[in-house]
Design brief:
425 residues; alpha+beta; Jelly Rolls; 3 domains; eight-stranded mixed beta sheet; 34% helix; disordered N terminus
Length: 425
C-alpha cells in the first residue's frame, strides 16, 4: 500500500468518479485530467478538498488522504496527485501546491510525475526567498555530476539547468557541467541542444531551429537566463519579453518568467519545532508577492528586493508618472488574519540614495473583499509599522503620492514584511 495513503475513513463522495469494488475504489484519472485541461481548477478542488488533510504547524506528518482507498497504479496515482497540485498552483494556492509536489517526491513513485514534481518544487525554491530554515545544500554542492542516465526526461534536464544556472559556481564550471549533461543525453533533441548551448558548444540559432513551436517560450526563458548570468542583461530581457507571448498560462515556467522580469516571487516559510536534537522542520506557509512593473536599466529592481531583508536593495516600478498608480500585492492560499505590515520606505541603501529618489507618501491598501485602508508614510528610512487587523487573502499597496527625489523621478520601496496568522493551519 502506498505510504502516502495513511488513513481511509470516508466512503464515496462523487459517484460519477468512483466505481465500488470489494475493498478498493477506482477513479477515472482521465476525467480529472480533462477537467484540468478545460481550466476547471476550482471544481477539481471542490470535489477533492474534503479528502486531503494538510499538516498543521505543530504536526510533522505528511499530507493525509482520507478518501477511499484507490485502485490505481503508482503512475496513475502520482498523476492524480499532480493534477491536484497543479490545480492549486493555477488557483495561486502555492502552499498546498508545494506540499503536494513534495509528497509526490518524498514517496518515490519512480514515475514521470515524480520527475515533474521535482522540477516544479525546484522552480518554486529558485524563484522564492526562503525564511527561517533553508533546505538548500551547501554552495557548489548541487548537481556536481550528471546522474540522470542516457535518456533523461525533459523535466530532469530542466531541473538540472535551472539549478546549475542559479547556483554559486563560476560560468566556466557551469559550462563544464552542461558539457557533461549534453554528452550523456542520448535523446538528441532540442533540450539536448539547449544543454550544448549552455556549454558554449552550440548557438541560439541552432537551438531555435530544432525547438518545436510549442516550446519556443521555454527555450527563450532558459537561453535568456544563460545570457543574464553571462552579463548580457539587455539580450536576456529581450528574450524574456518574447517569452511573455509564448508561454501558455498552464506552464509553471510562466512563474519563472515573471520572476526573471522582476514581477513575481514567493516567500517560503519553514519553521522548526521540538527541542534541540529532536527538531522537526515543516514547510508552513508560501505566499506570493506580485508587482505592476519593475524597472530594469543597469540592473533589475525586482519585487524580490522587498522580501530579501536587505535595505541595500529596492523595488522600483517602471513608471513615467513618478510611480503613481503602481502597486505591489501579497497573496495567500486562503484568507489569513493580517495583523500589520512593516514597510521600509524609499531606497534605504544610504541617506544620499534615499534622498535622490522618490519615496512613497500616500498609499492605499486594498483587501480581497474590496475594502480599502489609506496609509500615510513618513519620509524616513526607518521601518514603519502599519496596523491592519483584518482577515483577507490578499493585500495590495497602491502608490497615490510621493515625496520627490532630488535627482531622480524613480519611486522606491526597500522592504515589506507582513505579520499574519494563518487561518488554515
Amino acid at each position: 500500500m502506498r505510504k502516502i495513503i495513511l488513513i481511509f475513513l470516508l466512503t464515496i463522495f462523487f459517484t460519477s468518479s468512483f466505481v465500488l469494488g470489494d475493498s478498493k475504489q477506482s477513479i477515472d484519472v482521465s476525467q480529472y485530467n480533462q477537467m484540468y485541461q478545460n481550466g476547471q481548477y476550482q471544481e477539481i478542488i471542490n470535489r477533492l478538498q474534503y479528502y486531503l488533510i494538510f499538516p498543521k504547524r505543530e504536526n510533522s506528518s505528511p499530507i493525509e488522504w482520507v478518501g477511499p482507498e484507490l485502485n490505481l497504479s503508482d503512475s496513475d496515482f502520482s498523476h492524480f496527485l499532480f493534477i491536484i497540485a497543479d490545480s492549486y498552483r493555477m488557483l495561486q494556492k502555492y502552499t498546498k501546491s508545494m506540499l503536494l509536489y513534495a509528497d509526490i517526491i518524498n514517496y518515490s513513485f519512480g514515475t514521470e510525475y515524480e520527475n515533474t514534481a521535482k522540477y516544479s518544487f525546484t522552480l518554486y525554491k529558485k524563484i522564492g526567498i526562503i525564511k527561517e530554515w533553508s533546505p538548500e545544500p551547501p554552495k557548489n554542492d548541487e548537481f556536481t555530476r550528471y546522474t540522470f542516465g542516457v535518456n533523461p526526461q525533459h523535466e530532469s534536464i530542466f531541473e538540472a539547468i535551472l539549478s546549475k544556472l542559479s547556483d554559486h559556481t563560476s560560468l566556466s564550471e557551469k559550462r563544464q557541467f552542461f558539457k557533461s549533461l549534453a554528452s550523456n543525453d542520448n535523446n538528441n533533441d532540442w533540450v539536448t541542444e539547449l544543454s550544448k548551448f549552455c556549454a558554449g558548444e552550440s548557438s541560439i540559432d541552432k537551438v531555435i531551429a530544432i525547438t518545436p513551436a510549442e516550446n519556443i517560450g521555454i527555450e527563450n526563458i532558459y537561453t535568456g537566463y544563460y545570457f543574464e548570468i553571462s552579463g548580457d542583461q539587455s539580450l536576456a530581457r529581450s528574450l524574456y519579453q518574447k517569452a511573455l507571448a509564448q508561454i501558455p498560462s498552464k506552464n509553471i515556467e510562466l512563474l519563472l518568467l515573471r520572476n526573471k522580469l522582476g514581477l513575481f516571487t514567493l516567500k517560503i516559510i519553514y519553521t522548526k519545532y521540538g527541542v534541540t536534537g529532536k527538531e522537526v522542520v515543516n514547510l508552513t506557509d508560501v505566499y506570493s508577492i506580485k508587482a505592476s512593473s519593475a524597472k530594469c536599466e543597469d540592473k533589475l529592481y525586482s519585487i524580490q528586493n522587498l522580501i530579501d531583508d536587505n535595505p541595500q536593495t529596492a523595488w522600483v516600478p517602471d513608471s513615467k508618472t513618478s510611480g503613481i498608480g503602481e502597486w505591489t500585492e501579497i497573496s495567500f492560499d486562503d484568507p489569513v488574519q493580517i495583523n500589520s505590515l512593516t514597510l521600509t520606505n524609499g531606497y534605504a541603501k544610504s541617506e544620499e540614495v534615499f534622498k535622490n529618489n522618490n519615496r512613497i507618501k500616500d498609499a492605499t491598501l486594498v483587501f480581497s473583499d474590496g475594502s480599502k485602508q489609506p496609509v500615510l508614510l513618513k519620509d524616513t528610512m526607518e521601518p514603519q509599522k502599519i496596523n491592519v487587523n483584518r482577515k483577507s487573502r490578499t493585500v495590495r499597496l497602491i502608490i497615490d503620492s510621493v515625496y520627490k527625489g532630488i535627482k531622480f523621478d524613480d519611486t522606491c520601496l526597500s522592504g515589506i514584511d507582513v505579520d499574519f496568522r494563518s487561518q488554515t493551519k
